[in-house]
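Example for reference:
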Amino acid sequence: MTHKTPKIHALLATLDEIPGFDRHYVGFFQCFNAQLYYEAHDVLEEVWLPLRGQPQAKFYQGLIQTAGGFVHFQKNRLGPASRLFALALKNFENYPSRHAGIDLDAIRDVCRFYRQAVIDSGETRNPWSTEAAPQLALPSAEMT
């Protein structure tokens, strides 16, 4: 439990649940799709922290880094965003295309697309906008 736990639990209480999946995990996707990237990071961090050093930890860390990249976009910090997407891709390396109820390749594609857009612009153009923000599919039992 961290100092953020009460805030996270209050946020989770407002979100939908998907049977078979941890509320924090589902909450990550719901926050991300609402462009609440910092909150998405915080919600999933509660799952990741106790798992550090275990195989599943890198997967959660990659998702957290993906959300972190978009936090940097919201603050117009393009270099740090690009670097977080690269770290996320590295953390996703040993996972299959479909993992933990999601299409992980779709998330890899988001990371690659936005990272490359920053690189191609020489870190001068923010490729993210509120109007065209990416949406991540919610976890589904069919994807496990």
